[in-house]
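Homework help board

Subject: predicted structure for assignment chain

Our instructor gave us this sequence and asked us to write out the predicted structure in token form, then describe one feature. I got the tokens but I'm not sure how to describe them. Can anyone check?
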Amino acid sequence: MSALSKTDAVLSEPDHSEPDHSELNHSESNHSEPIRSEPNHSESEHSDPDLSHLQSAVLIDTNGFMIPVQFGIDIFSELRRLGFSQFLTVSAVVFELERLTKAAKGNDKIAARVALQLSEKCQVIDNLLGLPSFNKVSKYADDVITAAAVKYSLAVLTNDAGLRQKLIKNKVRVISMRQTKRLDFITTPSPKSE
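My token output:
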């Protein structure tokens, strides 16, 4: 079972509307639970999905998942403390973590393995947001995260300075590490702004 299909409905609340399974691409499509990542667009194929259930959601970047091993911070407890109850990611992040588990060495490899396990606690939202399939380049993950965060007003957990600056410039709520002890909202770019 792929990481995408395993995490597809992990944090979804029950959906009492009729799911549209016409675009279902998962090989494990014979389970009985409705799949929230396949929105029903009865009026128009190009209408935006109803994302009201994502008001307390945060989108987590690759290095956000690495924080627990690298700095000893429980990201989910910290995100709950900040008011978030739904944890999201994109398949490009999952792919990047899978790649790191094979390519990284030492502590980075351990961090990547733990990060990949943590990503399984998140809903992968590519299908939910109608995102195109990704080209397996890490830069693409940053672009997808930025586009989704801007379009759907999602907060983003990242410790990546470049992505953080890009998100802040786009008026996205950014959560990052403070004083290597906790997570907090970041409102200004780092001094090395581009």
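Reply (TA_rk): Your tokens look well-formed. For the description, you could write something like this. The chain has one domain: 3-11+56-186. That's the kind of observation they're looking for.
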